[in-house]
């Protein structure tokens, strides 16, 4: 019998206990012995809860119990979660996590401790919620040179954009529903300002290119400035608006950024709606593959975390090696990347034509126009935008 503990009993923690319980017979058959929940670390009591008899409030009980071989950290944040993860690894326990903030900020150090202690640190649920993406990227695609990884990496913002676009709902109303559905972070600023997607982009970039990146150095902007006019004009131009996290191989390293993009309606990413996430990987041998599925929520995220518990239980003697990079990140300036840009401007056609000759503006109900530029870097765009009043300028996904 293998015993495990769950740290945190929020949306994901409850889901992990539920999913593991539901599938206990199948899991026992896969592992070769039962995998049983021994403790749940909580901050307050849950009277009447089916797992109430296993709840403890002191992490030391878990840390010092040699029977506990696997710890699922689903607390979130990078303070208590960091302390407990480190202590659990140092106590010789494998740790699995869906905590993207912790993995992005301290994952390399935690992987290093796990390596030295001969245990696993697995974090499939930290990117893409229920979508299997980290194992395919690091194992199934191991024989590829990864050239780019990009996608819709935050369920809350995709839910909001889809609700605004397809149902005409307000930003605030859609965010409230995303919170009620358990998609949003405790502080949804991390979702709407792109910070959550940035952390996931850092993890993908690291596993793709081998450079450990400081997520706070990745240029990031969220969806708070995307307007109804942007969605209307994008449609008129044949696009939709999506928040994309992108990590691109460059000659000297890689660059990474998170920004709203105009995605052609013909691209598969355009049809990824609601809480769904999708991640596209461009590899030297495989070409382009896309992974799609629910990017947030109780049971999808629990599916990934529980999968990691099973994997850790199956690999007690021979640890899995999906380690984060051991060298510092070489972060090239994202501004140098050439792309076409969508520009929204309240100016008249003559002014737009003088700054962007050949631009074909479309007009929406807001009286503003929108157009797509030629290929250029951000500096060139900025110099041209000095001549027109730009309401927004977003990259176009090629
Ligand atoms: N708040 C996150 C999201 C949860 O909306 O995608 C899953 O990481």
What does this structure look like?
Helices cover 36% and strands 24% of the residues. It has helices at residues 11-22, 24-31, 59-63, 80-90, 100-117, 134-140, 155-167, 171-180, 189-192, 195-209, 228-237, 298-314, 349-355, 378-385; strands spanning 2-7, 35-41, 55-56, 68-73, 94-97, 121-122, 146-152, 211-212, 239-250, 253-264, 276-283, 287-294, 327-328, 341-345, 362-363, 369-372, 392-396. The strands form three sheets. It has a nine-stranded mixed sheet with strand order 12-11-7-9-10-17-14-16-15. It has a six-stranded parallel sheet with strand order 3-2-1-4-5-6, sandwiched between helices. The longest helix has 18 residues, at 100-117. It is elongated. 47% of the residues are buried. The protein binds L-homoserine. L-homoserine (HSE) binds at residues 100, 129, 154-156, 183-185, 191, 196, 295-296.
Keywords:
elongated; nine-stranded mixed beta sheet; binds L-homoserine; 398 residues; alpha/beta; six-stranded parallel beta sheet; 36% helix; 14 helices; 17 strands
Set out the fold topology:
Blueprint: E1 2-7, H1 11-22, H2 24-31, E2 35-41, E3 55-56, H3 59-63, E4 68-73, H4 80-90, E5 94-97, H5 100-117, E6 121-122, H6 134-140, E7 146-152, H7 155-167, H8 171-180, H9 189-192, H10 195-209, E8 211-212, H11 228-237, E9 239-250, E10 253-264, E11 276-283, E12 287-294, H12 298-314, E13 327-328, E14 341-345, H13 349-355, E15 362-363, E16 369-372, H14 378-385, E17 392-396
Parallel strand pairs: 1-2, 1-4, 2-3, 4-5, 5-6, 8-13, 10-17
Antiparallel strand pairs: 7-9, 7-11, 9-10, 11-12, 14-16, 14-17, 15-16
Helix pairs in contact: 1-12, 4-5, 5-10, 7-8
The structure holds L-homoserine.
